[in-house]
Design brief:
Elements: E1 9-15, H1 19-27, H2 29-35, E2 42-49, E3 56-63, E4 69-80, E5 84-89, E6 94-102, E7 105-112, H3 120-139, E8 143-150, H4 154-162, H5 164-170, E9 179-182, E10 189-195, E11 201-212, E12 216-226, E13 229-230, H6 234-240, E14 244-252, E15 255-263, H7 269-288
Antiparallel strand pairs: 1-7, 2-3, 3-4, 4-5, 5-6, 6-7, 8-15, 9-10, 10-11, 11-12, 12-13, 12-14, 14-15
């Protein structure tokens, strides 16, 4: 069979999570090691992923009984964020992953050239099992989610939620002195601050890891602030470090649906479950005035 006539196998899955979340979990090494296996007998103990055109990925695959291991590796030919990934494996087989948003859900389709050692049906089943594992992993991550329908255009809701004046208003549900210092821009550091009854300033130091106007904002918390300074309490800092907080905005017939998702923090779940709905209700009132 000539190169142009190579057969291809296609597998797909529909994940109950927004596009940006699925993209992140599928490509972030700390998550790749959690879902990248076709069966319970195998796992992925290590993953390196440089998701840029010309970048390399190396996933270490190993049998759990220690009997076998190998590197699944290749090079990215094309990367269009939240849309498509094209790659060439080190054995020169090519593959494509496409991402299609479906409201709060995401459809992933993986197309790849089979190798010659195993029957194509076994390869199809194996790759489908990996996608199914990704689906289970994403849908069962320990997160808290909140949503609200707002009768206002998405552009107004997005701007209102993040500008300094209105941010102070809707986040007063968390702390009457709540405010931020920094820029809402991808790659920027931003501080979320408030004062306690004694006037001590505390809060979180975060990184704006994604910023898509009128669509998605992702914050990665990188440390805790106490008395106006980053805390030296390593245990506390580590409990928050790397945790994500995401805002999504979906236009609808009735205006905009705001969907918030946060990683779970030890000891804070009940507080967030009580306070986030109150904060979003304030945001709704402001936007609809």
């Amino acid at each position: 069979m000539t190169k142009s006539m190579k057969s291809k196998i296609s597998v797909s899955t529909r994940i109950n999570a927004p596009l940006e979340k699925v993209w992140y979990v599928m490509n972030e090494p700390r998550h790749i090691v959690g879902w990248n296996a076709a069966s319970e007998d195998w796992h992925c103990p290590d993953a390196e992923n440089n998701l840029i055109e010309g970048g390399r990925f190396v996933y270490r695959m190993a049998a759990r009984d220690g009997s076998m291991e190998f590197d699944f590796s290749g090079t990215y030919n094309k990367v269009t964020d939240y849309q498509i990934i094209e790659y060439t494996l080190d054995d020169q087989r090519k593959g494509t992953v496409t991402f299609q948003p479906d409201g709060l859900k995401t459809i992933i389709t993986q197309v790849f050239e089979p190798e010659s050692t195993f029957p194509e049906n076994l390869q199809r089943d194996g790759w489908q099992a990996i996608l199914d594992n990704l689906k289970r992993y994403v849908e069962n991550l320990p997160v808290l989610s909140f949503s609200i329908q707002i009768e206002a255009l998405v552009e107004k809701v997005f701007k209102t939620m993040l500008d300094d004046h209105h941010y102070r208003q809707w986040t007063s549900a968390f702390n009457p002195t709540s405010h931020f210092e920094g820029k809402w821009q991808k790659g920027e550091s931003i501080k979320f601050l408030g004062s306690d009854e004694q006037g001590n300033i505390g809060g979180m130091q975060s990184l704006v890891s994604e910023f898509i106007p009128n669509r998605h904002v992702s914050l990665q918390h990188i440390g805790e602030i106490q008395s106006g300074q980053n805390t030296d309490d390593t245990q506390k800092a580590e409990s928050w470090s790397g945790a994500l907080e995401n805002y999504w905005y979906f236009p609808s017939d009735k205006g905009t649906m705001v969907y918030v998702e946060t990683d779970q923090f030890p000891g804070f779940d009940e507080y967030f479950k009580d306070t986030w709905p109150k904060a979003l209700a304030i945001l709704k009132k402001i936007c609809e005035e």
